[in-house]
Amino acid sequence: MRPWTGNHRIVYRLGLLSLAFLLASCRTPGPSPGLSATQVIPTAITAEPSSQVPSPAQAGIATHESRPAASVKTPERTGLVPTPTPSSTPEPTPSPTPTQRPAVRLAEAQRSWEDGDYETAIALWEEARQQADPPEKIELAISLARAYARADRHHGAIAVLAGVTTETTRSEELSQAAGLLASSYEALGDWDAAIAAFERYLELEDWAAPYVRWHMAKAHEALDEDEEAAEQLAAIDLIPLPLSRRAEVLEELATVRRRLGRYDAALEAYEHILEFSTVPNYRAHILHQKGETLREAGREDKAEELFGKVLQEYPKSAAAYSSLLALDEMGVDRVTNVERGAILYHARQYEACLNVLERHLLSEPVAEAARAHYYSGLAYEGLEQYAQAFREFDLVIRRYPKDPLVADAWMSMARTEASYGGDASGLYHEFVRLHPDHPRAPEALWRAAVALERAGEWDRAAGFYRKLRTTYPSDSRAGEALFREGLAAYALEDLPGAQGLWMEALQGELAQSERARVLTWLGLAADAMGDALAASEHWREAASISPRSYYGLRARDLQRGDSLRLAPDSSPTLPDDRLDESEWEEVLAWVRGWFEESTGVGASVSSDPLARHAQALWLLDWQGEAAATCRLLRDQVRDDPEALVALARLCDDLGLHSVAISCAERLLALGRKAAADEPPRALLKLSYPTNFGHLVSAEAEGEGIDPLLFLALIRQESRFNPRAVSWAGAVGLGQVMPPTGEWIASRIGPDSYSRALLFRPVVSVRYGVWFMARLLDMFDRDWVAALVGYNAGPGNVSRWTNDQPIADHDLFYETIPVDQAQRYVRHVYENYRTYEAVYREGGEVGDGQ
Fold it and tell me: Which of 5, 214, 359, 490 is least buried, going by the fewest C-beta atoms within 10 A?
């Protein structure tokens, strides 16, 4: 069954079909109203329909004072296909078949909206709405309103939607209009109108109800209406919500109930969270909040007990510090000074930690002295007072050699030595000499070797790697130590020695990707010795046993002599390429070739309650919530490949590309497990899509960048999610940091830069490609160096290469000192070569492994 995706998606597809006919019959396409690759985004293209915001009554919405209580509707969840409810909603009048030119304009409008060029979309949809027949005007008005809202022009959205509520009787259109109206009123801070519109939505439709009620609750809170907020929060159906959102709802419910003085009910909500939360720091936070609730209720004995539990079970958490402060306010002392100092250290209260521990050592110089000195050292280290930190760790080692903290003190002292420019390897070696049987002795040798390797002292590093693997052969790091001892020999130009060590490594039990790594390096050593035939044989074997892993691909590139510098003309055109009907059938046929236990679930995925929730959320333009809901469904059907195909298709239609990619990856993994035939090219296209390829091609052409390289970067950065925000604050498709975006805007515009622009694909792609081009200029078109610069910053690249061009890319890759940056290079390299195989080389391309 084809998934239901909303009216303007249908218009878009009709438009694309008409566009194909038009292009076939026309030699010269008409000018596009969209942004060119070099244009600065205009602040507006069309005027607002009205600067006056219609009242809720004018928009067909009951006022806040007169709104009835909305009933809580729970959809049927007993089966995958809910029983449909008979509806008396009249069928719409069939729309006349549009001519080609209007359809083309509608397709352009839809693409502009998806690209984040909302001004162009508004102009085109407004033009189409003026010319459309009445039945079509409603669909166009809803699309137009979405564009106004995305452009943060909510007065315009409200004016358009007010017309919808008076011009249609179809419940689907009325519910969309009500939900979108509510969001625009909410954005303007008109909480009464937002609540009224959300309640109107719930009268017509309930599939988005959990999130609608959340927004209603927040609106009530903004109006200081805690009774109503609590009612809405309590009415939320938690089943279709991810665990993180369930916890958020319950915690907010508990907070509101506390304000209302309903402490037992608040405690009940907190307890519900503890039933499913497994994250230690969050559990500590909730336990602390329970303690605060008991304290507010006057049950201080119970509160004291909970605060003490936080201190005992989660002493390193932020909640431990909060609980400590609460106990201090209550005049209760449940910890020793040393325990207090440790809690203060983990809360980064370094000065307070030192004061407490100093008092302890003056008053009780023997009790817990080793721990007091150890945490004093950590606090000094946190304050970057390394000499004092070194002294404290040294005191632990010399005065308390039998204390369990001695190993930690040795490791910390070595780390401190390195922090102010010293050679820590001697300290690590001394620890191993004194404590050869300690469980952390292999770790000390590993740390010493890595520190020396990063300092370029390969000979000494090799000695520590050798001692680790020969003295502690059962340690988990022994195999890597053998490989890196060979790497040290290679760096020292002892090529026969490197070959001998790597041949020894091949005798062990290695995963195919690790064997490919060793074989690739054997090839590099042979090549450096002038044995081209042996090098080619090693690289051929590496590529054959692990063809899609980083080293399998790298071996193939070395064998072919491929350069890691982009040619100046590396910018072929790359159109967007979505799967057509025959390709979806091809994927399904491949699945049925190895999956014989069909459950029939795949055909009904679009009717599954979670899918219905996701589609309703998408219609309200809550795409993040829609994606989260689809991920829940993906987890439910993760072992049913037919259902995964259906879900991937639904997500592809909804533009939820990150979830579609994850479904494709799961299908590839299931196929490998079942020893299936090579996956079809269509499935690789789904896993490595070219969404926004027209934007990438347009920008890349002017900068001489291969668009496939930048698509590989986007796949790693955001999985093609324009709304992606990283833990570090990077935004959009290209994950541009807002300060970097501001710097780029100062050079290429617009003058009216804001962080919100980075969520627009047309801006994110432009900025990302421009920044990548500057990095390529900086590093003489070395795209590996440019990738590291994009991820870790160009300053780090210069520091790691001593401001010199990369002479040996393979040695550079192995010695990148930040694991995250190395993983980034590996994944983008794999993505890039897979994109080339899927879209440029043809033939069998494997499955990315």
Answer: 359
Residue type, 763: V
Please check whether residue 425 is in contact with residue 451, taking contact to mean a CB–CB distance below 8 angstroms: yes
Question: What is the rounded distance in angstroms from the CA atom of residue 749 to the CA atom of residue 766?
Answer: 11
Specify whether the CB–CB gap between 763 and 744 falls below 8 A: no
Cα dihedral 41, 42, 44, 46 sign: negative
Tokens in use for 707? 């668009």
Kindly tell me the sign of the dihedral angle through the C-alpha atoms of 607, 635, 625, 278.
positive
Burial 517-529 (b: 16+ CB within 10 A, else e): bbbbbbbbbbbee
d(CA 254, CA 262): 9
Q: Mean pLDDT per segment of 10 residues, for the chain of length 849 residues?
A: 37 33 31 33 36 54 46 32 33 42 85 97 94 90 97 97 91 96 98 98 97 98 98 97 97 98 98 98 98 98 98 97 98 95 98 97 91 98 97 97 96 95 95 97 98 96 98 98 98 98 96 97 98 98 96 98 87 74 96 82 83 97 97 96 96 97 98 95 96 94 93 98 96 97 97 96 98 97 97 96 96 97 98 93 52
SS (H, E, C) 417-475: HHHCCCCCHHHHHHHHHHCCCCCCHHHHHHHHHHHHHHCCCHHHHHHHHHHHHHHCCCC
Give the whole-angstrom CA distance, residue 653 versus residue 650.
5
In the residue annotation, 167 being an active-site residue is answered as no
Whether cis (ω within 30° of 0) applies to the bond prior to 750 is: yes
The per-residue pLDDT for range 302-318, each reduced to its tens digit, is: 999 999 999 999 999 99
Q: Active-site residue among 339, 717, 814, 830? A: 717
CA dihedral 342, 348, 354, 360 (to 10 degrees): -20
State the DSSP string of 126-182. HHHHHHS-HHHHHHHHHHHHHHHHHTT-HHHHHHHHHHHHHH---HHHHHHHHHHHH
Distance CA 76, CA 201 (A): 19
Q: How far is CA 209 from CA 75, 146, 245, 620, in A?
A: 10, 20, 14, 11
Please, which residues have CB within 8 angstroms of residue 116's CB and are 6 or more apart in sequence? 150, 722, 759, 760, 761, 762, 763, 764
CB 124 within 8 A of CB 94: no
| Per-residue CA distances from 481 to 434, 467, 477, 676 (Å) | 22, 9, 6, 36
Cα 373 to Cα 95: distance, rounded to the nearest angstrom: 80
Helices marked H in 278-349 — which ranges? 280-296, 300-313, 318-329, 337-346
SS3 565: strand
292: tokens are 């605060």
pLDDT digits (tens, 9 = 90+) for 123-139: 999 999 988 888 899 99
- pTM equals 0.86
